[in-house]
Structures
1.
Amino acid sequence: MSFNFTVSPSFPNERISDWYIFNTWLQRSLSLPIHLELYDNFGAQRAAIAAGKVDMIHANPFDASLLVREKGFRAIARPEGPPDEMVVVTAADSPAQGIPDLTPGTRLACTDDPCVNTVGRILLEPANLDTGNTVEHRRDTYIQVAKEILRGEADIGFLPVVAFKSLSSLVRRDLRVLVTSDAQVIQHVFLVGPALHERGDDIARLLLAMHETSKGIAMLEALGATSWQPVQQEDVEFMIDIISTLTQ
Amino acid sequence: MQDMDRAHIAGDAAEHVLTYADGTSRRVYVTSIETPYPHGKLIVSRTNTAGIITQCNQSFVDMSGYAMDELIGQPHSILRHPAMPAAAFRDLWDTVQAGRQWHGYVKNLRKDGGHYWVYAAVVPNIRDGNIAGYTSVRREPSRVNIEASEARYAEMNRP
């Protein structure tokens, strides 16, 4: 029997092969058959979670809420590094200099990333903008979000900081950041589902020691992290409490 | 809770004596200086079931004007501004003690007598079916909602 591993679709496309390399390392180190399934979007990944097709996941904070509180997943590690922040961007020549300059009818481009969209919506509140007085354009990828702004089809866009930084310098030159979130407390976490609870401690030990070898360091760097840090269940419960205040 | 120290107050200040739900009181000094909410930030804190601060993030420290060690172990009402009606906090406590989330606009008092407005959400931390404490997350409110709240609270405070 093979276990299914997946990764929140919020990572940049160029890291796809790095996650496959990580999965191969994980399988060999644990002597466990693990199948990596990467989903194109959050909807497809949530459907897989609902169908019980996920045993292990590097989850975005919003999915972590669902998985821990409703599906019996256990948090075992989080990547060391800056927390998950996002930007609201506009065209470089936009008249808006800050969020309060945005007006009802603003067209916003975003993907279906629940974390980025929730925080992005909160950042629009100072302008009294909400789903009722903005026009939302859902796109499949962050690059499509950026291009929609550059083509003048959207006034603003929501992007994770990591995705914004991974845009080409040419694209970034024509965009301007209106605001960057500084939530400080929202992060991806590595979770194991009930089918792997017995191996949870082994997986945690393996991840937490990953930065102790040169091969491990190289893999971590490729995934945008420097090490894995231990996570207590209460840390995740706290993050879930925080997220619940953002979604009301 | 100790009275505010007049030496920490920036500029002209009005003196008030706040009386809390537990019958204790505190002398506070209030200026008209507003500190703008820092764009993009979330202010996060946690209390035990008695409302004593057990954890807070750097944004909480920065906005309150207190040092971290002046906040941990103090009642959350250290931030209570006299312009806030007692009824608003009664509603907050009734709501979260019943296991539900509370949301509202709050004018907070800084250590220097100034203030800052937030849109606050308070959620009970349910662990093993029991309330283990409360988490509060504040975010930037719009100017329109601040002005509406200011007017509403002034009306509620009218004798």
2.
Amino acid sequence: MPTFFESKELVTPGDLLAEGDYIAGENTYQEDKKIFAERIGLVEYDNRKVRVVALRAFYIPRIGDVVIGMITEVGFNGWEVDINAPYTAILRASDVLERGFRPQKNDLLSILDIGDLVIAKVTAYDRGSNPVIKISEPGLGKISRGQLIKVTPTKIPRIIGRKGSMISMIKRETNCRITLGQNGLIIISGKTREDEQLAIMALRKVEDESHTSGLTDRIAEMIRKEKEGRRKNVQT
Amino acid sequence: MSKPEKLLDKKGLRLDGRKLDELRPIKMEVGVLSNADGSAYLEQGKNKVLAAVYGPKEVHPKHLALADRAILRCRYHMAPFSVEERKSPAPSRREIELSKVIREALEPAVFLEYYPRTAIDVFIEILQADGGTRCAGITTAALALADAGVPMRDLVVACAAGKIEGKLVLDLMDLEDKYGEADVPLAMMPGINAVTLLQMDGSLTLEEFQNAVKMAMEGCKQIYEEQKKALRARYIAIKEAINE
């Protein structure tokens, strides 16, 4: 039962990862007893399971995911929301309005207009129909301030870090509130524009260097250096 | 360009000094367009090709969508300035046919069944043409698809072999294609040993044809290694910059 790469090694589509009694995990496929990579990424061998952590991918909805979306259309009984996925999501008016929805009375445009951003949760999705999302839960709802950035969706787990180590460090060091959408959209809101810029810089660096080790320490160092540089600028 | 007197010189070398089984110098880069979901650029001799991939995304017009799989749409286009005499930018009969041929060469590599009711758009723009652009287009498009994060069975590579002045040669350029005796473009997935495109233009004996196919496959394998290198290059560069 040979494997053909080291763990965490970079692989490209079509690379033969393992042969024999293995199980094909994420971003891999099996043909006969051979397991191949489907995407460019880092290979991981976990006992008999072979998977690839993708470096390039797009977002596919999963039930329970918290996502950030933009309203693209207002209909008679709900909204259509772009959630950075191949499918547009549906947000039902009956879910947003607490006391039952009456088309004659409620004006949907006054609640959410085209272009508004929302934090939402995926409640239903399968291959046959478009995803349904909701915003009626604490922590969800319309976004009123902050900056929006887009990263590769597969890198969200890296941005969170082990038990949230990376994201909590960035939040602490930059004094920003950061909301991560599983779909690769991130909202950053801080007290000053400089704080927000610093957080964005850190997040971009994590995205670019997600496949390297010792990243949390390097990011912390970068933020500290940037802050010092700023203090000096203020003094002079 | 007018017809050269001879396509092979006394030493048996070709017009650009290549040996019979030698590829043109090849250069690839991935992720060159920031507005596309995936992109790649390739130079193969005097060929210059740009490919961009968008999607998967919702299908418009809606009636084209398939309930059980994604559709792959391909556009092969030559820029007006890509050839010596200005080419009309409107898609010609040849370009429409090549778009279809390239789509069918790429389709077996992509896991279309993963994303029903969506479309994946591939745009191939020939910036400068010097023979074998359909092959260069396929090679570039496969890189752009991988860069877009579209799941694939393997990268698709294409390369041509042919016959000039009675000798089998690899990777024909424009003059050799025009004034040679035959041209056999071939696309394949070398990792799983599957051929996705095989065409022939001109005349060859059965034996010559079999040898030409073999030759083209060898060429494909060489380009395949370059493709993989190009995909990895960006990530390896970042890693090395950090280790320094």
3.
Amino acid sequence: MEFVISLAIGVMAGAGVWLVLRPRTFQVLIGLSLLSYAVNLFIFSVGSLAIDKAPIVKPGLAANLLNYSDPLPQSLVLTAIVIGFATTALFLVLLLALRGLSGGDHVDGEEEKH
Amino acid sequence: MSTFVNLIPDMSQWIVAPVLLPLATAALMLLIKERHRPIKSTINLVSTLAGLTLSVLLLLWVNKQPAASAYGIYLASNWQAPFGIVLVLDRLSAMMLVLANMVGLASLSYALTRWHHAGVQFHVLFQLQLMGLYGAFLTGDLFNLFVFFEVLLAASYGLLLHGGGSARVRAGLHYVAVNLLASLLFLIGVAVIYGVTGTLNMADIAQKLLLTPASDRGLLHAGAAILALAFLTKAAVWPLNFWLPGAYTTASAPVAALFAILTKVGIYSVLRLWTLCFPTAAGDSALFGADALVWGGIATLIFGAIGILAASSVRRIAAFSIITSSGTLIAAFGFSDIALGSGALFYLASSTLSGCALFLLVELLERARQISGHHASIDHGHDTLHAFVDTEPMPDTNLDDDEKVLVGRVIPAALAFLGMNFAIATVIIAGLPPLSGFISKLTMLQALIDLHNTAGWTLFALLIVSGLLAAMALMRQGIRHFWSSQERPSLRMHALETLPIMLLLGTCILLAAWGEPVLSYMHATAEALHQPQGYIDAVMAAQPVDKIVTIEGIAP
């Protein structure tokens, strides 16, 4: 499972970095989204990966990381998703505003001169 | 003065107030319709003034405590550290609170004459910006720091776009993209540090770092470095600062002035976490990354100084002077020297206030140059200061060949005011005697002489050269703006626009006049930063408030 998770993080981060460096605003937006997915998965994975270990204390089972998964990274991911969602929405608004003002979708507001 | 200081009550339960006050104000103002701007302005101004009073009281309270225990701890929801979020007030965060408040008050009162009409929800965004700033300066929890960073960034995105226009949207897009990437780096850094230490409380992290096994130390350093990259992007350290000139020159004047404190948030975070986690006593991790900070700061200083000289407008000079001050601060803090650190803290206060004042002056200067027909039409001029507009010739005045008044034509009062303030700002930013910029630079130079190493001498030379370059560039602009013999109609300024500039520069003059007590405050701050054990002990020992005992008055 560690291999699958790290592969997923790597692929998404790689694709995200590539897209962020592209000159079109929409590509940058998708790149930022992919990067934030990669980061969210990464935060999730620092709290030790486990199957069938809910972070809810059951009676009679000692409250340690052997029996449960760590709840803190999960709450961090939740916060990060909400904040990332809001800022991505704001970026989308800016993207549309720039498109309306400049008539193009280049990140600098004008095409490069060749 | 001293009797007044003794009257200050125990403020430890008030530490959360600077965060709650702007939040409540913003929520209240959201309910008021946009057309009731006068009501919103009044609420905003009252709230900002109350915040200033509160933060000055907090500063005086924390300063009257003995140096070893000058910490105020607020346990959110009464949860003991490290399980809950803690807010920590020490000399550094109290100083940053007061600075943020002064910058906020200045840009608000400047915005009240015209800029707050230029877009919607200026007042709400402004209060949320202040809330993010106060929270970032107060919090003692790493993830909470991320949340407050996002609050202040989200508000700054809105404020940067305030006024609209394609230049702002273009610069805003770059600014948002860069900051989103920096936020992702922040998250990666936090996650790695949590993975290694198992805690997010800053004091607890500092404690656990000493116990980290050697096998995890590489991972820990990687996490710290990634986290530092996020902060250094915010602090505009070269080569992470190419977003700054574009964003700061296109932002409206009061917003750019408010942004003078934003780079300082990055510097504050580096200073706080680096001194806490990697002091000289931290074993294998002692002073991790000190060289990167010093040389990164020096490179930033060079970049900023060249930028100042190459800049064609005062606005760009102001933006590059922000970069120069960031470089100076990061390099100076990187040496981890108490005497140098206290000079740098003094410089932090002086450069924030003067940078803010310069951004406000810039717009008035540009208005003085470009005023012709359509620019003036924005200005209602209903309540313009009489002294500044009363340049109509008297019936029996001496007239020259061109029918112009001979007396009183040379420098109109408004232009004289601008010239005077521009000169003061130049003196402070370039670090010329006798104002606060000089005192702070002198303190740093004295400390650098005692260091006897290559980096120290490099910074020594660069501090002098960068001051010289800033003085040259600003004087050149001053000559262009004030001594050029162009004919121009009288400049109209509102009293509320001149007041904040005088307030900021006046504070810089007071900083110089009260150099002794201010420097001793900075020295105590720097000393406390180099003794992180005091901070750690204060946070870890903070006990939840026992409700029954305090309310019923039953002494145990």
